[in-house]
Amino acid sequence: MPIVLDVGNTEAVLAAVASARTPLGLVEGHARASGVRLEPFVDDEMVAIVAPNSRARLRTVADLAKLPVLYREPGSGTRAVLDRALRNANVRKKPLPMDIELGSNEAILGAVAAGLGVAFVARWALRAHLAAGRVVLVPGLDFVVRRTFHWALPAGALGSAAARFFEFAQRNPPVMA
Fold it and tell me: Nearest CA to 78 among 122, 113, 26?
């Protein structure tokens, strides 16, 4: 049987593993689900990006209160991590009317490139967009959001193909460029 990769937000991945529709998953949020155990995999950071021609003056975390922020949808681990970080920094208790909610990282990257606001995106997702000049990192911002990607595993044992994939991934974690 071939390996199948489904992409979904944290909530959907946890539900798929809990119901045994998917043997294992990879999530970045703080969510939990009955019958699913989480094991740390790799650390990541979400960094602020804007369009290359952006006129946004963004130097401190307080400046985020004046700019549209592009968010993932509710249920997304990225959204949960960013919401928590902004609350902890006393910048935003919830999204503002000027903010935009989008359903994927690619949609957010496209909206940033179009100049619609600032977004926090995983370094893992930025390499090609930065190299092509579609987006730029916000220089000197004193706000970085750190998180850990976790394996979402069933409470019981993994099947043989899933176990082999899991073991391979654990031995060969990705390296941040």
Answer: 122
pLDDT in tens, 147-170: 899 999 998 889 888 999 999 999
Q: If you ran DSSP here, which 8-state letter would residue 159 be given?
A: P
- Report the pLDDT value the prediction gives residue 8, as an integer from 0 to 100: 84
- Of the candidates 73, 29, 85, 59, the one whose C-alpha atom is nearest the C-alpha of residue 141 is 59
pLDDT in tens, 56-96: 888 888 888 889 999 998 888 888 889 999 999 998 888 88
- Does 50 share its domain with 130? yes
Closest CA to 118 of 63, 39, 156, 36: 63
Question: What is the pTM for the complete model shown?
Answer: 0.81
DSSP code of residue 6? -
The helix, strand and coil proportions of the chain, stated in percent and rounded to the nearest 5, come to: 30, 25, 45
**Residue 138: C-alpha distances to residues 34, 61, 70, 143, 161 (Å):** 39, 11, 14, 10, 42
154 and 77 in one domain?
no
CA–CA separation, 82 vs 77, rounded Å?
9
In a domain, 2, yes or no: no
Answer yes or no: do 160 and 127 share one domain: no
3-state secondary structure of 47: strand
Domain count, the chain: 2
pLDDT given at position 133: 95
